[in-house]
Design a protein that fits this description.
alpha/beta, Alpha/beta knot, 6-stranded parallel sheet, 3-stranded antiparallel sheet, 9 strands, binds S-adenosylmethionine
Length: 190
């Protein structure tokens, strides 16, 4: 199953850090791509730099901030038979619907688009999505919501993905051990 995250509502400069964290979580928790409804290419560059060091092929594509464009992206995704999940505190509790989403992806071979907002999300998103899903019905953050959702989708297996990066962490009970695969030098200054 391929998972693509659509980040809407990103505001230049103000949302850089949060959107970068949405991208980092998407990458680390098994999504293959983030579509960013903005022209902020600094996020694209930031993720490229992360991949260069830590591996994987996760990518960010800026699709522009206009509603007509990202709405068309959602509609095209659905038209091709794939599933759109919108994460919102107003949605169905994740425990009550995640099995159905996973089954549809597995049994029907569907891919998943996960929409996360920033500020108030336009009503239309609630209408065009196949599922409006809440990670608990309390307000928190798109970063947290995405992490929990992806972990439930992949049932924890995503945390074992081998990113085959130049830099590889050697898990350690104390301190930091990182291998630079280019020089095969062990570093402790990361
Ligand atoms: N009041 C805003 C709204 O009406 O959409 C919430 C904005 S919240 C700061 C930013 C994003 O975090 C939301 O668009 C949603 O994607 C995500 N989010 C926040 N709390 C959530 C929850 N409990 N469950 C699922 N997603 C949540």
């Amino acid at each position: 199953m391929r998972v693509v995250v659509l980040r809407i509502g990103h505001r230049y400069v103000r949302d850089y850090r949060v959107t970068m964290h949405v991208a980092l979580v998407a990458r680390a928790f098994g999504a293959s791509k983030m579509l960013l409804a903005s022209d902020d290419s600094s996020i694209v560059e930031g993720i490229r730099a992360v991949n260069e060091r830590w591996g994987g092929s996760f990518e960010v594509e800026c699709i522009g901030s206009q509603q007509a464009i990202w709405l068309n992206t959602i509609n095209e995704w659905r038209k091709s038979g794939n599933i759109v999940v919108h994460l919102t505190m107003y949605g169905l509790h994740i425990d009550d619907i995640i099995q159905e989403v996973r089954d549809r992806c597995k049994d029907e071979g569907k891919d998943l688009m996960v929409v996360v907002g920033a500020e108030k999300v336009p009503r239309i998103v609630y209408e065009v999505s196949d599922y409006n899903i809440a990670i608990g019905n309390q307000p928190h953050s798109e970063v947290a919501a995405l992490a929990v959702f992806l972990d439930r989708v992949f049932e924890g297996k995503e945390l074992r993905i081998d990113f085959k990066g130049r830099m590889r962490i050697v898990p350690n009970a104390r301190g930091k051990r990182v291998l630079d695969m280019n020089s095969l030098v062990e570093r402790s200054d990361e």
